[in-house]
């Protein structure tokens, strides 16, 4: 399956193409497999620190994260709805023998869809009177809906992938902190965790909510296409549904690619991205002198033009050392 948008497979070449790959630095290990296309890009690009991927994309859509909050825009793509305030949620876990600290991210839990739905159903039964609802898009990506008319909860600024677990801050709202603590206790005693404990599987120990806000839009504003959760970043898909980021049928300015959502980010997936996304982008860059390629990882932005690609003296090294 080709991970590039359809316009990358025709004759239209944008002047600048942006590839979002947040969390790359967090999986950088020298014993990881070599990634030749990524290593060539990192060796020859000009780099600068910083650049929140979600903020960059919101700016490309003509706003900011207040105008285009991550949670509701992502829910529009994943669930086909963004009528009220919500946060995007990643389930967090711990080994069956651990106590207290959340050390496992969602991919390591290997949750099934049935397990995720059962945990959400237990949460909703317990907290329906509080005006909140948990909805599962994929086993690794959930949404916490805040159905009251109050100020939307903000949650964390970034997904847990980009935060050191030892320094992960608490949400700013006391009511949300209390809800998360109660959810931990609920999950600990849930039959799903009881069964996983007996099998020696990691336990679902808590929730990481982030990207909260409310999307104020008339009902007709959303593009009418089915919501289909997938491996790609739903924030980009949601902005495309809203029509504020082109669907790439003929765009020449910006052509964003976000092939892997952070909740599913694992080093094992990078080989496919290197082969199916980065290598074709470099090939197009080589054929298009006016094009520029930008790689945004959340901690740095790397930009490369066709002339830079020819700087053969800047020899690639292992990507874990270069990023």
3D structure, described in words:
- The protein is an alpha+beta fold and 323 residues long.
- It folds into 2 domains: 13-51 and 233-322, no CATH class; 83-213, no CATH class.
- Helix content is 33%, strand content 17%.
- It has helices spanning 36-44, 53-60, 70-79, 106-109, 113-127, 174-188, 191-198, 234-242, 267-287, 306-309, 319-322, and strands spanning 16-20, 46-49, 85-94, 132-138, 141-146, 203-213, 292-296, 300-305.
- It is globular.
- The two termini are 27 Å apart.
Produce a short descriptive summary.
By secondary structure, this protein is of the alpha+beta class. It contains 11 helices and 8 strands.
Total DSSP helices: 11
Helical residue percent?
A: 25-40%
Any low-confidence stretches, pLDDT <50, length ≥5?
Answer: 6-11
Can you give the mean pLDDT? 83
Based on Cα principal axes, name the global outline. Answer: globular
Counting helices, strands and paired strands, the structural category is alpha+beta
Strand order of the largest sheet: 1-7-8-2
SS strand fraction? 15-25%
Q: Helix and strand succession?
A: EHEHHEHHEEHHEHHEEHH
Q: Key features?
A:
323 residues; alpha+beta; four-stranded mixed β-sheet; four-stranded antiparallel β-sheet; 11 helices
Strand and helix map with partners:
Layout: E1 16-20, H1 36-44, E2 46-49, H2 53-60, H3 70-79, E3 85-94, H4 106-109, H5 113-127, E4 132-138, E5 141-146, H6 174-188, H7 191-198, E6 203-213, H8 234-242, H9 267-287, E7 292-296, E8 300-305, H10 306-309, H11 319-322
Parallel strand pairs: 1-7
Antiparallel strand pairs: 2-8, 3-5, 3-6, 4-5, 7-8
Helix pairs in contact: 1-9, 3-8
């Amino acid at each position: 399956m080709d991970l590039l948008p359809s316009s990358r497979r025709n004759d239209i070449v944008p002047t600048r193409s942006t590839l979002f790959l947040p969390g790359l630095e967090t999986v950088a290990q020298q014993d990881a497999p070599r990634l030749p296309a990524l290593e060539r890009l990192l060796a020859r690009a000009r780099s600068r620190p910083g650049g929140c991927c979600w903020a960059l994309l919101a700016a490309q859509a003509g706003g900011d994260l207040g105008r285009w909050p991550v949670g509701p825009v992502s829910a529009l793509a994943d669930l086909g709805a963004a009528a009220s305030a919500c946060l995007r949620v990643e389930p967090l876990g711990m080994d069956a023998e651990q106590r207290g600290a959340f050390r496992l991210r969602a991919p390591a839990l290997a949750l099934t869809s049935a397990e995720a739905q059962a945990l959400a159903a237990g949460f909703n039964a317990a907290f329906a009177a509080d005006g909140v609802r948990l909805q599962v898009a994929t086993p690794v990506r959930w949404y916490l809906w805040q159905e009251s008319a109050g100020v939307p909860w903000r949650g964390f600024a970034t997904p847990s992938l980009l935060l050191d677990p030892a320094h992960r801050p608490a949400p700013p709202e006391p009511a949300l902190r209390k809800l998360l603590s109660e959810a931990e206790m609920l999950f600990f005693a849930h039959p799903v965790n009881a069964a996983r404990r007996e099998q020696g599987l990691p336990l679902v120990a808590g929730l990481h909510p982030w990207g909260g806000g409310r999307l104020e839009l008339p009902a007709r504003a959303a593009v009418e296409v089915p919501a289909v959760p997938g491996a790609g970043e739903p924030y980009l898909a949601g902005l495309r549904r809203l029509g504020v980021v082109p669907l790439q049928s003929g765009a020449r300015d910006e052509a964003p690619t976000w092939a892997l959502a952070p909740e599913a980010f694992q080093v094992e997936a990078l080989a496919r991205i290197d082969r199916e996304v980065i290598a074709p982008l470099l090939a197009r860059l080589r054929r298009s002198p006016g094009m520029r390629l930008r790689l945004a990882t959340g901690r740095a932005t790397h930009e490369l033009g066709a002339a830079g690609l020819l700087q053969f003296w800047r020899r690639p090294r292992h990507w874990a050392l270069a990023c």
